[in-house]
Amino acid sequence: MKTLQFLLAIWKANLQSALEYRVSFLSQMIGMMVNNFIYFAIWIIFFDRFKDVRGWGVGDMYITFGILASAFGLVSILFGNAFMLSDVIAKGRLDYYLSLPKPVLLHAISSRMVASGVGDFFYGFLSYALSGYFSWDGLLRYVLALLLAATVFAAFLILTQSLAFWFGMMNNFSALALNAMLTFGIYPITLFDNYAKIILFTLIPAALMGAIPAEFIRAFTWQSLSQMLIGAIGFIGLAVFVFNRGLKRYESGSAIQVEV
Amino acid sequence: MKTVSKYWSIFQITLINSLAYPGELIGRSLMIIPFMWIFYQLWKVTFAAAGAEVISGLTLRDTLWYLMLAETIELGRPPIARTLSENVKDGSIAYILNKPYDFLWYQFSAAMGETIFRAALNALFGGLTVWTLVGAPNHPQGFWIALPAILGAWILHFCVNAMIGLSAFIVEDVSAFTWIYQKLAFIFGGMLIPLDFYPNWLQAIAKALPFASAIYGPARLFVTPTLELLINVMSLQIVWILVLSFTLAFIYRRGLTQLTVNGG
Fold first, then answer.
1. Position B141 in a domain
2. Structural domain count, chain B
3. Contact A24 B46 (CB under 8 A)
4. Scanning every residue of chain B, which has its alpha carbon at the shortest distance from the alpha carbon of A173?
5. Is there a contact between A207 and A148 (Cβ–Cβ < 8 Å)?
6. Tens of pLDDT along A27-52?
7. CB A49 to CB B198 under 8 A?
8. Beta carbons of B146 and B225 less than 8 angstroms apart
9. Within a domain: residue B263?
10. What number is the ipTM of this complex?
11. Which of A159, B65, B206, B248 could be cross-linked to B137 through a Cys-Cys bond (beta carbons 3.0 to 4.6 Å apart)?
12. Which residue range(s) make up the domain with B19?
């Protein structure tokens, strides 16, 4: 309960800080929505010409893109520093979080908000509404799938970025992993053979962020729900474990730093 | 002559600088591999579903080599808009303004220096991936024919991105413009789908815009290197380079009148 109160306080402070530059905040939010819309137009053109990819049509793309955008947005809003975690670790900036009586990982990843994430978050809902699959019970499934997909995504970020405890600066690898996750998440899962699908459920769990949640939103099945639940619990457990193991290896840079 | 050698030196310095961190350079270029693999999956299925060897004049192999060059052009270019907007926002533009060189030519020389190895490595990794997946390009000589158009593409990218960066003279944050420009380049430049696969009305619009000159033109020239296409691509590119470079120079002069540098 105390942790939740702490998180709420930090999220409130992040929001107030982002709203300090109101024009910038709004331009990033609206800009990201326009950006997503233009990107999605490519898929509209593609499906207009080629109709479907092994049974995967434009409606499926709307939902997949939507849930992926919302999950990405939610993590950007609530845990925006997860994108920079490897930098924080490699530059010895964890000292600040270690010196305070709060959970280190939660504090570190929640201490920044990415304003453009708000645009992603809302665009996802809009994309779902336009998919042709919209229903009120589907919306409830959308929210549940969003929470689980965001958990998998946050866990993936923590996992890949925590490798900085062992390998130092990981900016390129982190960017590569993030791009792979988003790219594979957006494309129709029907493109991939069984070997590739194993990778998409494990090494790069893009299927748990895009295709499986989309399947669950379209129609409830115990299979897709259990896949998402097991994926979310498994990945977040693994991410926390790896982070804590890495933390034992952490050496302070003794640098003087100011956290703003 | 002295003027040219000045900017040539800036180009050389950034070129050498870009090799200072080879791990960083290689790591960034590896991104093209998953992109090309996923494009292969998508287009292999699409060609099979269409039951055609050739779609709108392109085979699967042409399509993949086309996309490889389009990605190389896009991934090879440095974040010019961000650099310029930071120069304007943090006031470091003042340090360049009082030096004996032109701000825009300085940025252009530096950007080109940064581009060469980035693009070369992207072409190398992307080319190896595509070669493994679909075999050699049908017209390997197309690369040399497309080379002037690739250089023209980077000049166009520079002009547009520099304009976006300089908009920091007026707005607080330029990142939204950068995303939107990138996505417009995706859609109207034919970065994910060759423009030839678009409906005719959209093709006509897209091919007349500068995005097509910056991506589609050079990439299409690479896979179908004909004299007619070369003339078409280069003449349209030259028109857009002239229009955009004059616009950039105008925006820069106007922007300077709004610049206020506090302290140092």
1. yes
2. 1
3. no
4. B27
5. no
6. 889 989 999 999 999 999 999 988 88
7. yes
8. yes
9. no
10. 0.83
11. B65
12. 2-256
